[in-house]
Specification:
This protein is 67% helix and 4% strand. By secondary structure, it is mainly alpha-helical. The chain has a two-stranded antiparallel ribbon with strand order 1-2.
Length: 169
């Protein structure tokens, strides 16, 4: 059994750019990743707002295809075709996004919720799982391992690569 985690990682990153309908959803996440990496590493309410927006954006992009036109011009959410793991991840991301956004706006975290201000790198995970959650790729152990395996190298490249820009502030 051959595990080519590099190929799985490249496929995760390339897939959204191979489908025009996914570009609209993924580009703001890349922008959010760069903005988050250029801000302070310390938790604050501004980073919570950034994280909340990114999470809500990703979650809405994943759930949008399940809205179907209904009578009287209204749209109805039909989740029957959505896999349970995709459904769980989507609603978890949406819930965390709403809590992070509200916490940032209110300038107050819920009890044990300060981690929402520490999520500078959360966009990496949203970007990595985006084609899976958008149902262009399937959830596999190889892809999940590739996401985890490349998290630290990607973070190191972003952290040290953007350090000159970050230090100019």
């Amino acid at each position: 059994m051959s595990h080519n985690y590099w190929a799985a990682f490249v496929q995760l990153i390339q897939t959204p750019f191979q489908h025009l309908e996914l570009v609209w959803g993924i580009v703001p996440l890349y922008f959010g990743l760069l903005v988050n990496e250029l801000t302070s590493a310390k938790a604050n309410f501004r980073t919570a707002i950034q994280t909340g927006f990114s999470f809500i954006w990703a979650g809405l992009q994943w759930i949008y295809p399940y809205f179907r036109p209904h009578e009287h011009g209204l749209a109805r959410l039909e989740l029957g075709a959505m896999l349970p793991v995709n459904l769980l991840v989507t609603f978890l991301v949406l819930a965390l996004g709403v809590v992070a956004l509200i916490s940032g706006v209110r300038r107050r975290y819920p009890r044990y919720g300060t981690f929402l201000g520490h999520t500078r790198f959360a966009n990496y995970f949203m970007i990595a799982i985006f084609p899976i959650q958008a149902r262009y790729l399937e959830w596999t152990w190889d892809r999940l391992i590739a996401i985890a395996l490349f998290a630290v190298p990607v973070w190191l490249v972003l952290h040290f690569g953007l350090m000159p820009i970050r230090s100019q502030k």
